[in-house]
């Protein structure tokens, strides 16, 4: 019986340990019943009220946000146009008039 290669580093040295498969080269562990890495579901971004966000949407801030390294504050109600969704903790790339390019968390905006 041939074991599948590691989905992360593609090493052929995988081995079974109980119900898991393990790669000794990168220490990745996975279940052989798990869906392949390419079959992941598309991520859905939601605003503070549960509305689904998409690239190009306009959003409004629901909380005052202090800018790191500055004394400036972006006030609640500030409208941000043409957002771009990205992976990561701060999942919105945008430009705010008077402040420039920055990243925001989707938890602090609502869809306009």
From TrEMBL:
> What is any Pfam family matched here?
Zn_Ribbon_YjdM
Domain (Protein YjdM C-terminal): residue spans on this chain: 46-111
Q: Which InterPro entries match?
A: YjdM (IPR004624), YjdM_C (IPR013988), YjdM_N (IPR013987)
The record's listing under Gene3D superfamilies reads: 2.20.25.10, SH3 Domains
Tell me where in this chain the Protein YjdM N-terminal domain is found. Answer: 2-31
Family note = Belongs to the YjdM family.
Listed name of the protein? Alkylphosphonate utilization protein
Q: What is the protein's species of origin?
A: Hydrogenophaga electricum
């Amino acid at each position: 019986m041939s074991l599948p290669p590691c989905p992360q580093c593609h090493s052929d040295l995988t081995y079974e340990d109980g119900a898991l498969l393990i790669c000794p080269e990168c220490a990745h562990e996975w279940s052989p019943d798990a869906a392949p890495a390419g079959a992941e579901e598309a991520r859905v971004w939601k605003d503070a009220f549960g509305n689904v966000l998409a690239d190009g949407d306009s959003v409004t801030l629901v909380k005052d946000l202090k800018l790191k390294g500055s004394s400036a504050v972006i006030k609640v109600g500030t409208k941000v146009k043409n957002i771009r969704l990205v992976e990561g903790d701060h999942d919105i790339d945008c430009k705010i008039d008077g402040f420039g390019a920055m990243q925001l968390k989707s938890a602090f905006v609502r869809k306009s």
